[in-house]
Amino acid sequence: MTTAEFSLAGIVLLPLLASAVAVLLGSRVRAVLGILTALLICGLCTAVLIQTAAGGITELALGGYEAPLGIRLRADGLSALFLCLSAVVGTVVSAHAAILPASAGHPGFWPLWLGCWSGLNAVFVSGDLFNTYVGLELVGLTAVALVALGGRDSWMPALRYLFVAVLGSLLFLVGVGLILAAAGTLDMEQAAQQLAETPEAHAAAVFALCLMSVGLVLKLALMPMHRWLIPAHAGAPGAVSPLLSALVIKAALFVILRLWLWVMPLDATTEAETGLAEGLSTALTALAWTLGGFGALAVILGSVMALRQDRLKPLVAYSTVAQVGYWFLFLPLLLDPEAGALEGQPGTTLAEDAVLSGALSGSVALALGHGVAKAGLFLAAGLLKELWGTDEIESLRGAGRRHPLLILSMGLCAVGLIGLPISLGFTGKWHLATSAVAAEHWWIIAVLVLGTLLSAGYLLRGIAPLLLQDAKDPQDQEHDAAQDADASAESPRRQRLAEVPAFVLGLLTVLTGFLAVGIDALMGVGAPW
Amino acid sequence: MSGLLPEDVSLAVPDIALGLALLTAAGCALIPRSRLALAAGFLSLGALTALVWLRLDSVDVGLAEAGLGGGILGALLVWLAIRSPHSPAPDSAETISTTQPTSGTRRTSRPILNPRTLLGCAAGAVLGGGLCLVWFQVLHALPAWSEPLEEQMETTGVTHEITGVLLAFRAYDTLLESAVLMLAGVAVMALGRDGGLHQLSLPQPEVPSALRWLVRLCAPVLLLAGLWLLFAGSSDSGGAFQSGAVLCSLLILLRTAHALPSRERTEPWIRPLLIGGVVVFILAGLVGPLLADPLLSEAWLSWQPQWATAAVLSVEILLTIGIAVGLFLMYLTLENPEGVQ
Fold first, then answer.
1. Kindly report the CA angle at A250 between A248 and A254, in degrees rounded to 5?
2. Is B272 within 8 Å of A24 when comparing Cβ atoms?
3. Residue span of the structural domain in which B191 resides
């Protein structure tokens, strides 16, 4: 067994082992163990990445039992990209939590977060539908517990999050059952093959896709189902909110992409001509347009709601709601027969499947860019709240004088979230826009432009006051006093050091823009076309 | 559709009665206002569900349903119902936070037909109807693993197929599920006062001496039943989850009868026992890839035939203990929700 194959299971099981062992340790040792595990995960992730970059799909049959009897782990380009995101963001945020234990809320953070990390990786490398469900459960339960670490006030949001997450999981599980009944196997690749071959099973597959999409979208907080996210993400401890926004909701996004593009027999369903199949095709198109429409709604209404916030953390949380919308805009492109037809016509310079691959890699780039940038922004906002005792934008006026590095990193993250060149956000929007133009879906362009303008508005509104210098007013001196009181609790050097992880994420937001070509190439490994 | 009813309709009568009883029990578990009635409805729902699983020849699922769904969860609900019999209004948390910050906002009447209920019923109806329609359309594909399952059973070290699936073929899923339970225990410990063990040091209410005697009589039987479920699991129905539930109920009973050792003596054991199963499971899974012959492709979580039985059995014993302790921790914390932090 190669290193990559060993890493594939190791990246799930070793963090889980660390999580279990951490239960026995004291809080300081837990942080050390957490950092060591993070480094280990980075190493294992690199092994998988190298294999994938060389163009190979890593596969591992656990216990030596091949599917359909056993469970197969599988890492293609999409898995490798999301694994890297979780490794990078997870490591930086773990470092922050180790530097500033107060930001973790409670020493219980470490076992729960390591368990959550293990679940995230389990979802990203899973090749089996039921195993994906178990991974999602692991992520959901630990995420709820992490929110609840924020103290008594965050228990209610955590409970609400639990209900939403469990409802989403149940809908997903019913879908898994339907696919099992129709295809006779839980392995994704085999199920996809089986479904493509048996047109009678398409009705079940489409209904399952509806249920699973609704369940996952609940976990992802797409616009009409977004209410739970704001108090949960805003009320969580400083080191937890970045993990929730950057990574936890990405697990559901990853499963949605897998289902729509890898498992469902979209071509077979849309191309069939008979009466029933036509109805199914209409249903599928309607579902894609509904989700795409919700996405557009989220981009615009979420941004407007973010504009109206007076506190930093809820503002960043609403920004997450808005950004989630971008990832669904490409779904109508997926099912538009015109989009594919355009490529074959003489006179167009588009390569085979260029529209679809462009739209998909654009959406994935947006999601990855959001992961890094939002983690940085939430980390900085959490730290400000920690240091100043409040996250009201008005009372944080002039915070930039005291924490220039922190505000600089917030600005860098904002560059990524708005989608200014050279960040990954820009690349994603560019890819999505060019695909939309090629497929003549002009509404996507309108949503992108409007969303970009609005996001620039709310981020400026959130960050600009921090940079403004007031004349020395009594309130300011009050803050100085509060600051000094805080400083005596945590050493100032530690506080300075705690600004570094947010800055690293800010830098990464901009620098990852250079990797955009690599992302396109990686997406091609094991792509559905 | 013709396969829906058997030729002789009289054969279907018990099933139909069972289904109707299930629906009634579900109604009893949802509609009444008093918590005691709700808990009673839930208990009967659990018992009936277990019967349905038995009727479907799924003994393992039936046992798990009876142990976890009916047993432990039922015990918790009954306990909560006895402590505070009145259920608050469904939206009391929102009402309290937005309008009147007093406890007097408890609604006296709950309209049965408010828009939310209707929306919920409509969603349920669409879901149920859609599922039924699709279900009858599906050409039920037989699970593709039936043949390989029979071929590979010998390598697992157990003879019961469900245990084979749980601990060999799909051991990875079982491992992640036990991790979910372990982390639920960890979460409870992190959120509860005093590491979740505060309850252990509180004095228990006095119970009639008859109950104490009864518990002392029942305890050995429960212990035996738990162990039987555990060890029978390798050749018959039963296994770690069911056995863990029975052992947890034993712990709960011992606690009510003041028969549990003092906190000082139990505390050092709780954490190691909680995580033991998961740790040993992963370490046993590591043996394959670490000691692998480089020529063979030894994967994670593969058991060598010569020590498969030993590995599976020790993992299962430790998992059972971990599950029992995890469930007991949850019971401890929920026993007195006001006592938490």
1. 130
2. yes
3. 161-341
Question: What distance in Å separates residue B223's CA from the closest CA in chain A?
Answer: 27
**Interface membership of A62 toward B (CB under 8 Å):** yes
Q: Give the number of other Cβ atoms within 10 Å of residue B286's Cβ.
A: 18
Q: Which helix (H) or strand (E) holds B18?
A: helix B13-30
Distance, CA of A99 to CA of A382 (rounded, Å): 14
In a domain, B281, yes or no: yes
The position carrying tokens 């026993």 is B335
Q: Using CB atoms, which residue from A9, A107, A138 is nearest to B179?
A: A138
Would you say residue B194 lies in a domain?
A: yes
Mean pLDDT by 10 residues, chain B (341 residues): 56 87 89 83 89 86 80 80 66 40 43 78 89 76 74 74 81 92 92 77 75 85 88 75 88 83 83 92 84 62 78 88 91 69 42
Query: DSSP state, B194?
Result: G
More confident residue, A495 or B177: B177
> What are the φ/ψ torsions at residue A485 (nearest 5 degrees)?
-65, -40
**Residue in this structure with the two tokens 């046992």, named with its chain if needed:** B63
Residue in B closest to A191 by C-alpha: B144
Within-domain flag for B180: yes
Q: How far is CA A56 from CA A12, A48, A352, A525, A526, in A?
A: 20, 10, 22, 7, 8
Q: What is the 3-state secondary structure (H, E, C) of B30-51?
A: HCCCEHHHHHHHHHHHHHHHHH
Ranges of each domain in chain A: 3-523
Q: Which residue has the tokens 């063979």?
A: B296
Residue A29 near chain B (CB below 8 Å): no
pLDDT tens figures, A346-355: 444 445 567 7
Q: What is the pLDDT at residue A490?
A: 57
| B176 close to A (CB below 8 A) | yes
Bridge partners (DSSP) of residue A128 are A187
What pLDDT is attached to residue A480?
A: 53
CB contact under 8 A, A23 and B274: yes
Rounded Cα distance, A370 and A390, in Å = 25
Residues of A in contact with B275 (CB under 8 A): 20-21, 23-24
Residues 355-384 of A with CB under 8 A from B: none
ipTM of model: 0.90
Nearest CA in chain A to B302: A63
- Rounded Cα–Cα distance for residues B172 and A119 (Å): 12
Q: What is the separation of C-alpha A516 from the centre of its chain, rounded to a whole number of angstroms?
A: 17
| Domain total in chain B | 1
